Amino acid sequence: MSNDYERFSHIEVAGNAILPLVRAITVDALTKALLNKVGLSDIQPSQFYPLSSHLTLLADVDRRMPTVLKRAGEFIASEALFPPEIQTFEHFLAAINTVYLLQHRGYEEGEIGQYKFSKESDTVFIMVDDIPYPCRFDEGMYLGFAKRFGVGISLEHQGDSCRRKGDKQCSFRIELK
Known about the structure:
The protein is of the alpha+beta class and 177 residues long. It has six helices and seven strands; from the N terminus they run E-H-H-E-H-H-H-E-E-E-H-E-E. It has helices at residues 15-24, 28-37, 51-64, 66-79, 89-102, 135-148, and strands at 12-14, 48-50, 104-105, 115-119, 124-129, 153-158, 170-176.
């Protein structure tokens, strides 16, 4: 994944999408230093912030503390707001792109990528994520939402393409247990 996030400087992300990362970082001094470094020192859930700053923060945490980034993805499940008709993990997977886009503003169609959902069977789903966020964050998010909906899953990062290696997308095979 490229660290050239300035191309996203005109796009904003909701504060409630940033706070799970803040909560996942348990060392207060480090949290403050990392947030101050990118100009995100006082995050409010109802405000929007530069996506470029948020992506820089995520990349820094991914480099320094990869397990924390995955845990932040898990925490987003407890923070995320989405329509009440989303009652199952499968419904969540099918609707995640809409929820993702609602957390951002100021972008042109296709500019911040998307989540693509497909179903192999009643228990196997494929997600292709071509978003600028680190894939470890997505891994944690899938695990967190599975827990929120009370289902066990196995999660496999599949194929050769990976944002961690600088590719545009990652594919995940998610199987209900």
